[in-house]
Design a protein that fits this description.
Layout lengths: L2 E19 L2 E16 L4 E7 L2 H4 L3 H15 L7 H8 L7 H19 L3 H4 L6 E3 L2 E3 L4 H13 L4 E5 L4 H14 L4 E5 L6 H10 L4 E5 L7 H10 L4 E3 L6 H10 L4 E5 H4 L2 H13 L3 E5 L5 H13 L3 E4 L7 E2 L3 E2 L3 E3 L2 E3 L9 E2 L2
Parallel strand pairs: 5-6, 6-7, 7-8, 8-9, 9-10, 10-11, 11-12
Antiparallel strand pairs: 1-2, 1-13, 2-3, 4-16, 14-17, 15-16
Length: 353
């Protein structure tokens, strides 16, 4: 298979429901970069670079530049030789993992199209559905409860509450949601906002209420994360601390968390995510597949990965839900908080650009 043309298309999308986190004052729009790949054999595939500057320090200019450099190099590569092709693009995307992710998705999409198989089966086919959480923004207690009720009315039964600015307020917010929606599973994402003492106080206060506490302490400080993990009565997941296989291996070796969260957009795509999951599985740690604000095309890729591995215990794939004007038509289904794959080949999505 030979690539004949690659188009790089930046797209700005607004959010239907703006949100706030510990390191975002307010987010109401995102810019992503779609990659449109056409082969001489007539196949058409898509990839997407979605990036959060607060997580990876990427800029739109850097991502577009890297995608265009990859587009030139890709014309000389056989995308079905996925490992070789992605290795060749690696030096061009060292500081732009989202750009590597875009081509990783497109190459895997082509692989699925060439075999006539949906990607989740091609990668392992462990299951065909997974329940996802949906994120609840930082807000005052009353507003937090209303946001949670709204998501529950949409059918979601796992709520991930953003926190990290005020530990005591986070406890009050989570308890208020639990009182209002006792049958919902709750997760708390502190986004690196706590000290070790604060993290342990929160975990003890919410024991039996939250399923997990995600990235309670600064990402680079694995010693503190280990101390929290060692003494916490609730599971601790590393998120921002996981930037690729090397960091995942260090976390696993130090037992600095009970599980690893991986985002395709920030680690470079499916190939890297599968390496992180393999490390977690060998270390008997759970994997969570997470996301940034991203089009449904990226959600489809995260879902394919989540469905392929028995070690993926948690789904957090809601990044597409509130995007206005997403050009992606997904092949997967969303029913009562469950993401369900279909048998459409590859990523199973169409993109109208």
């Amino acid at each position: 298979m030979q690539i004949s043309d690659v188009e790089v298309v930046p797209v700005e999308l607004s959010l239907r429901l703006p949100y706030r986190t510990a390191y975002h004052l307010a987010v109401d729009r995102v810019t992503v970069v779609f990659v449109h790949v056409i082969t001489r054999q007539g196949q058409v595939a898509w990839g997407c670079a979605a990036f959060d500057p607060a997580l990876t320090s990427e800029t739109l200019e850097d991502v577009v530049r890297a995608c265009r450099a990859c587009a030139e190099r890709a014309r000389d590569l056989n995308p079905l030789n996925t490992e070789y092709a992605l290795d060749e693009l690696g030096p061009l995307t060292e500081r732009t993992p989202s750009a590597l992710c875009a081509f990783d998705l497109a190459f895997h999409d082509l692989l699925g199209l060439a075999t006539g198989m949906p990607l989740h089966r091609l990668l392992g086919g462990y299951r065909n559905r997974i329940q996802t959480s949906v994120t609840i923004s930082i807000a005052p207690v009353k507003e937090t409860v209303e946001l949670a009720r709204g998501r529950a009315r949409q059918g979601f039964r796992i709520l991930k509450v953003k926190g990290g600015l005020d530990p005591d307020e986070d406890v009050r917010r989570v308890r208020a949601i639990h009182d209002a929606l006792p049958h919902c599973t709750l997760r708390l994402d502190a986004d690196q906002g706590y000290t070790a003492g604060q993290a342990l106080d929160v975990s003890r206060a919410l024991q039996g209420i939250v399923e997990m506490l995600e990235q309670p302490t600064p990402a680079a400080d694995l010693d503190t994360l280990y101390q929290v993990t060692k003494h916490s009565p609730v599971p601790i997941l590393a998120d921002e601390s996981v930037v690729g296989p090397a960091s995942a291996l260090e976390i696993a070796a130090r037992r600095a968390a009970h599980g690893l969260s991986v985002k395709l957009a920030t680690c470079g795509g499916l190939r890297c995510a599968r390496q992180v999951d393999t490390i977690a599985r060998a270390a008997q740690m759970a994997t969570m597949v997470s996301c940034v604000n991203e089009p449904a095309l990226l959600t489809a890729a995260g879902l394919s990965f989540a469905l392929s591995s028995p070690n993926v215990r948690y789904g957090d794939l809601d990044g597409h839900l509130d995007l206005v004007g997403d050009p992606t038509t997904p092949g997967f289904l969303l029913q009562e908080g469950w993401l369900i794959a279909t048998d459409q080949p590859g990523l199973g999505c169409t993109v109208d650009l």
